[in-house]
Amino acid sequence: MVLVLQVLVLGGGFVGEYLTDILEETGINYASTTTDGRNGTIKWRFSEKDDGSDTQTSTLPFAKTVVVTFPLLGSSAAKRLVESYTRRDWHAVFGSNKATPRWIYLGSTRAFKERPSNRYTIPNVIAGGARLEAEEYMINNFGGCVLNLAGLWGGKRVPSGWGRFYTTKEKLRGRLEDRSLHLLHGADAARAIWAVIVSKNTGSLAGRWLVSDARVYDILYTIIQDDRLRGFLSALLGEEEEVRKLLNANSIEEVMMGESAVTKRIDSSHFWRDFEIEPKYFYVRDEPDPY
User: Fold this and answer.
1) Is 169 in contact with 235 (CB distance < 8 Å)?
2) Burial of 51 from C-beta contacts in 10 A (0-12 / 13-18 / 19+)
3) Domain spanning 4-157+183-216+264-274: which superfamily?
4) 99 with 159: CB under 8 angstroms?
5) Mean pLDDT, 10 residues at a time, over the chain (291 residues)?
6) Do residues 144 and 105 lie in contact, with contact meaning Cβ atoms separated by under 8 Å?
7) Which of 11, 40, 190, 285 lies at a 20 to 30 A Cα distance from 248?
């Protein structure tokens, strides 16, 4: 008899580690892959190169739900992964030629520019790029459930340290017109995936869901304790009248920071309501990870 798992997690990285914890806690049998086979996972790597065969997935176990945690670049990559996996002898496993696994694919919220954007908002094609193309293909051709996750944090991923991405005064300047920051703790991302896995309303799962912790943060408030960035901001206020007007301030001390100073971009209420769970872990600057 062929072993059929409830869940196969392709990519046991940041979110995958939280997810396997909750799968174990709730007694769901699963397998997970990593590129090096660490910690008892299956050693496996998806190749973007199309060699015309199904050998890429031949070593993977059968599972009722497959969670893809890594980005697929373009519709051809999505098609190759899904078709090579489902082209195997599913009839012998499930007793039906129509039986195929459910697909859960993790994306980002980068392509959503409207204020606020929700699961019905049309994403920006240019901003989404190849990753968005793969998401659309998953949804339209395989009935996939795409979870567009907000900025992931937890453990060593600390939002206050993200000031390292603003290496020049110009890069910080480019962030001042949209300071909104949407976050999702890795544990809540895992809980969201778990909620999809155990949901009995399988017919309504297909499509796109935006998932954040339902709050909006101010990136400036989050990173401004960095002395280098304070120097950048002070210089910008001193040099540019447009920046002073934008921030309605002449000095750092006058800049209003925090949730009230930014506009929500991501509305994830559809997800939390329809799956009847709520986010549990929220970021507070200078406080330890609540997980």
Assistant:
1) yes
2) exposed
3) NAD(P)-binding Rossmann-like Domain (3.40.50.720)
4) no
5) 86 94 96 93 85 73 94 93 80 62 95 95 95 95 95 96 95 95 98 94 83 97 95 96 97 95 96 96 96 95
6) yes
7) 285
